[in-house]
Target: Glutathione S-transferase A
Amino acid sequence: MITLEEKKLQGYKHKLLSFEKGEHKSQEVLEINPRGQLPAFKHGDNVLNESSAACLYLENQFKSQGVKLTPDSPAEQALMYQRMMEGLTLTDKLNSVIYYDLLVPEEERHDSAVKRNREELATELNLWEGYLQKVVAAGSYLAGGFSLADVIVFPNIAFAFRFGLSAGRYPKLAKYYSLLKDRPSIKASRPPHWLASPQGFDILKDI
Amino acid sequence: MITLEEKKLQGYKHKLLSFEKGEHKSQEVLEINPRGQLPAFKHGDNVLNESSAACLYLENQFKSQGVKLTPDSPAEQALMYQRMMEGLTLTDKLNSVIYYDLLVPEEERHDSAVKRNREELATELNLWEGYLQKVVAAGSYLAGGFSLADVIVFPNIAFAFRFGLSAGRYPKLAKYYSLLKDRPSIKASRPPHWLASPQGFDILKDI
Model:
């Protein structure tokens, strides 16, 4: 949705589904995405269900419309692709802590695994804290101008703070979050229930 | 390496490292990749350590050199990005079976988890078997011509057969494998020890 907004594709159809109600396994979703996962996205007859794939496709199809999300310089372009794909690892590590009980059946849960997942997430977040060190000092984005790297990585950072991440412990992540949170594309795509209760969870507060 | 070969960038420096000897944690790797993982790749001063990121970058930087790895038609381009990113899920599911003992400490292992991982891998492989149904009938690739989707997905398929996947049970995957295995870029990038002992493992034979 951030990419759709940046590319001035407003007017796209979208629908908020509930995981709790299992709506991601509905026939409506399965017809687009046989994995029964979100996002499930269609542009004309073209189906793109991986968010990074959908972003790359939209950027390529609407190159000169709205904001250009791929930097021109080879150095920034390399950084963009690198951070974008590393963002998928950040997602995995956040999920392995936040959704541990959903991902692991009760009889297979171990305190040692919970501890290790939390330590690995802290290591991952500190890596990003380092990446952002120079970037936020310059008031800039992950790879020069606002790019696909921010499109993919920002929602992870927002997600982490929603789940209680400490701004004191991760000041660069917090700075990055506050630099981007009111960008129009990001405001327009914020989940409505996040606005209603901006922070109701503290699972990450001691990470 | 497949992308480097397709883009006629022969002459690139490369080095085969041993996981068993922990060479991926060497200073030489850590200087390029702070995660201590492979690949660790540098083009000039530009660092790209995620293989999909490196492929996207090389394709973009060398658009008109060697084989064009991005289709022109929107439909094929959508399919390319989608399959490419889904390939990362295939990698995860293969790893969770093949490297279970490496990934999970002994006291946290469960037969129920092993069974579930194997079932999830079978579901994943059957999904790809379906994707390839039309494709290999037409003697073609994952998204029209040979593209970044094949660059990312093929090594996973090769890996699965090396670990004993049954060609009888997955005939389309086997057909796809045999269509691509002698392509020059793929032959040039095949791990040398795979040639010495083409198939020494049977962990996937009953999947």
